[in-house]
Amino acid sequence: MTESLNDLREKVARKLEANPGIKTGMLADTLGVAEADVLRAMPEGHAAELVVKDLESLVRNLEALGTVYFIMRNGACVTEIKGRFGEFSKSGPFFNVSTETLHLHLRLDRIESVFHVNPAMPEGRAPMPSLQFFQSDGSVAFRVFLIESIQQDAGDDFTQSVEALKELISQAANHVTS
How far apart are CA 135 and CA 129, in angstroms? Predict the structure, then answer.
């Protein structure tokens, strides 16, 4: 990051004040910085960078969350899938998820940082806590969201899944204060 974190925090705060619902990817594009840097500059309580002790364990433990919203983004496409983690295997550099609802080949060796994101939501909107995984250039690799309506449709207990997320974070990582 070429500018100071404090300068970026000020810019992010101004943009959020003008448009509270702006997505972090759009905010990063607007400011010309990496999305991971935007998360580092978010107001207190919105995002926490994690120091992950065992990334594979963290991903394996996503199974405990039940049905999640998996989002992958690259420069030309956003893919959004409702599904469950599980049925894990390894093949060469890939860590695989092969359930009926998710079929992923993840390069965990390319994940540089992980954030727990719990943004303030506009009044009347349910919380959408997530874990977001970033590559070394600060671009997003993938995100895993808990969304109450998706969980209810799948017969999952949202409150129980949020508690499982908190437990998984405490077991697999330590917060870095930003």
Answer: 20
Distance of alpha carbon 128 from its chain centroid, rounded? 10
Q: What is the pTM of this model?
A: 0.88
Distance CA 126, CA 149 (A): 9
What are the residue ranges in the chain where pLDDT is below 70? 1-3, 120-126, 172-178
- CA gap 90, 93 in Å, rounded: 7
Q: How many other C-beta atoms can be found within 10 angstroms of the C-beta atom of residue 134?
A: 23
Rounded alpha-carbon distances, angstroms, from residue 77 to 41, 72, 80, 110: 25, 8, 10, 19
| Residues making up the chain, counted from first to last | 178
Spell out the domains of the chain, with CATH numbers in brackets: 44-176 (3.40.1570.10)
Find how far residue 144's CA is from the centre of its chain: 5
Say how far apart CA 121 and CA 104 lie, in whole Å. Answer: 29
* Cα-based angle 165, 169, 174 (whole degrees, multiple of 5): 160
pLDDT digits (tens, 9 = 90+) for 61-84: 999 999 999 999 887 899 999 999
